[in-house]
From TrEMBL:
Highest taxon, organism lineage: Bacteria
SMART domains tied to this protein: HTH_LACI (SM00354)
GO MF assignments: DNA-binding transcription factor activity; transcription cis-regulatory region binding
PROSITE patterns tied to this protein: HTH_LACI_1 (PS00356), HTH_LACI_2 (PS50932)
InterPro entries recorded: HTH_LacI, LacI/GalR-like_sensor, Lambda_DNA-bd_dom_sf, Peripla_BP_I
SUPFAM superfamilies linked: lambda repressor-like DNA-binding domains, Periplasmic binding protein-like I
Protein name: Transcriptional regulator, LacI family
Pfam family, one: Peripla_BP_3
Keyword Transcription regulation: yes
Keywords: DNA-binding, Transcription, Transcription regulation
Boundaries of every HTH lacI-type domain copy: 7-60
Record bears the keyword Transcription regulation: yes
Length: 342
């Protein structure tokens, strides 16, 4: 048959009815059950799939290549962290291969598998882990042989089961500090816009905020917590749902700045002002939020430094492979999006 143009690994996985990770392992000669390997190879032959020649060429220069896997490079949070990685990599004359998973656990595992096949010098995972035992086992199964073979791995954010070097933003402590700051402004009725509960970042930020409110005797009911994607549109949709329920909160805390930006837009579109009608706060301090009208109250993380430190850990010899953990705190920055109540 005539070769199809732009046949991807995802096409092969779909045709073979297997995950991306399984397809990648089968095509790269890694361990996979015979019947699954046969299905993948048959699908690849039928589709005339050809592995990316450029990636193969890079494999020959693997000692100069670093793989960075993040959730979504279009999100300013990940762009800033990746920028820190690239600054250190550039100083070391290393090539960075950047991939976005869009918070798909299977895609993350597949990218790790592909970077193993390309024999990258190091793999960096930038972004929240998943509260998912299946994902944890599958990712560990990919990383262990890579580490045993001399590969280096570092992660940014909490990955509970991975025994690798980690740079941990203090998400729980930062959210608790935000709760205290908002309480000090006089707020006692809150709502929270949260992301997917499977993300460890959500568990840490929501948990820290809720626990600090509880210490102050301030309730946060289930109806006051609205879930949406960690995106601007996710924040807009969650805020719209909260308004439909009947907004009673004087302050809305979004677990990321991009969600907070969407929330402010939804409030504006519903004829409400920030902070005149309701205060809004976020988390991360991505560069754009200080230029909003009004500028956003948030927890400022050293985003570029998170990437720099992860890259430095990955490039620093770790004899004995003892897990190194570097914690980096955030600071509440109160801006005009939150009003002080009498």
């Amino acid at each position: 048959m005539q070769p199809r143009t732009h046949v991807t690994l995802e096409d092969v996985a779909r045709a073979a009815d297997v995950s991306l990770a399984t397809a990648s392992r089968a095509l790269n000669g890694m361990r996979v059950t015979p019947h699954l390997r046969d299905r993948v190879l048959a699908a690849a032959e039928q589709l005339a799939y050809t592995p990316n020649a450029h990636a193969r060429a890079l494999a020959g220069a693997s000692h100069r290549t670093v793989g960075v896997i993040c959730h979504d490079v279009s999100d300013p949070y990940f762009a800033a962290v990746a920028g820190g990685v690239m600054r250190i990599a550039g100083d070391k004359d290393l090539l960075v291969m950047l991939a976005s998973t869009f918070r798909d656990p299977e895609r993350e595992i597949a990218y790790v598998s592909m970077l193993r096949a390309e024999r990258a010098l190091a793999i960096l995972l930038i972004g929240s882990g998943f509260e998912d035992p299946h994902w944890e086992r599958a990712l560990d199964a990919e990383l262990k042989p890579y580490l045993d073979g001399g590969g280096r791995v570092a992660v940014v954010s909490r990955h509970r089961s991975l025994k690798v070097d980690s740079v941990l933003p203090e998400n729980r402590a930062g959210a608790a500090a935000m709760a205290r700051a908002l309480l000090d402004l006089g707020h006692r009725r809150f709502a929270v816009l949260t992301g997917p509960p499977a993300l460890t970042t959500v568990a840490d930020r929501l948990g820290g905020f809720r626990d600090e409110l509880k210490k102050a005797g301030v309730p946060l009911a289930a109806a006051d917590i609205v879930e949406g994607p960690f995106t601007r549109d996710g924040g807009y949709g969650a805020m719209t749902e909260l308004l439909a329920r009947g907004l009673t909160a004087t302050c809305v805390f979004a677990l990321t700045d991009v969600m907070a930006i969407g929330a402010c837009a939804a409030l504006r579109d519903h004829g409400l002002s920030v902070p005149g009608d309701v205060s809004v706060a976020g988390f991360d301090d991505i560069p754009i939020v200080r230029d909003l009208t009004p500028p956003l109250t948030t927890v400022a993380l050293p985003l570029q430094q998170l990437g720099e430190k992860a890259m430095e850990l990955a490039l620093t010899d770790n004899t004995g492979r003892r897990r190194r953990i570097l914690r980096m705190g955030g600071e509440v920055v109160v801006r005009a999006s939150t009003a002080k109540l009498a």
